[in-house]
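Researcher: Let's try something more involved. This one mixes different molecule types, so please make sure each is placed in the same coordinate frame as the others.
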Amino acid sequence: MGLGQWLNERTGIHDVYRVVLARKIPKTGWAYTLGSATLFVMINQIVTGILLSIYYVPTPDHAWDSVNYIQNEVLFGWLIRGLHHFGASAMVILVGLHMIRVVIYGAYKYPREVTWLTGVLLLIITMAFGFTGYLLPWDQKAYWATTVGTQFVGTTPLVGDWMLNVVRGGPDLSAVTLARFFGVHVWVLPAALLTVVSIHLFLVIRLGISNPPWKKNQPPLPQDETEASA
Amino acid sequence: MTDAQMENEDPRELSRREFMDRSIKAIGAFIGLTMGIPAVGYLISPALQQQPGGRVRLGRTSEVEIGVPTLFTVTIDKTTGWVKSEIDLAYFVYTEDGINFTVMSNICTHLGCRTHWNEAGYIYCPCHDGRFDVQGNVIAGPPPRPLKRVEFQVDANNTILIREA
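Model: All components are placed in one shared frame. Result:
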């Protein structure tokens, strides 16, 4: 008995492969790859982010120096940091395009409303990733961009000042701000991201992807049981 | 079955599905390698970087006590990663006649603790009760080797010079 068979008998891994990776989908087009593209960049961000945390230090004394060390001293440091840096922009762009595709194709409609809602959460999480990550190099651009970005919070009526203090960990940007942005960036947001992405993907697999609008009048595909029974 | 029949009329021919399957796996492997190899280099990078060690003045030969390992401590500037810091190096210098000298590291060969001279007549490591004689040879405890001898030079001013470790 081969190892694959041994494992399958105990885990049902073949079924998982068939349902998750080899599942049948309707004939669509390139626009339908945006979600997978986002997922790919997300994995890139996780891998390169973990690698960056091997050298990065979130204190005002050492943040910039450690980033400089990664960029100029560590073998392939420029590549790892570059992938994370440009991957962040790619992530925001892809999430946006993915959302636009879902809106235009009407893919958020019944029975996929919860997939849409988790997608909205993922959009917010992605933006929060971008915002908190921007501060971490602790250079001039990071410092002043975050000064401006957090200042928005202060314009909230009545509780603005208090909220600004919470976000910054004090009235001004400081060591406390850098540390909490780092903590949010590498612990809070990844935990939230993985949780919500799991739900999002589960729903995508469970419900199947939607037919393009120009195929709406065709009978549902036989494997699309949820829609067929609805 | 109809799909398979249509796509795979000649069983020796590579079907469209099979071609796509293999292509995706190949591209996946390529991406994995282009990420994986740099990642390994990135992680082991600090171990590959060597810092050229300059010469350090340990002290003057006249400061070495006859017959007793004398501990010399020098402070050097060292950059580790992104931090510039001062590091204390400590070496025993031993001589019996004031002419021939032995310089040895005070780092215990067992598990790297710092040793010191004990007035009872041996070099002592407090971590696991290791003991060395005045020449650095093991006389008791777990150390597997004598204290590490260090190459040195004595210049015209009778100053002992060693290379930075």
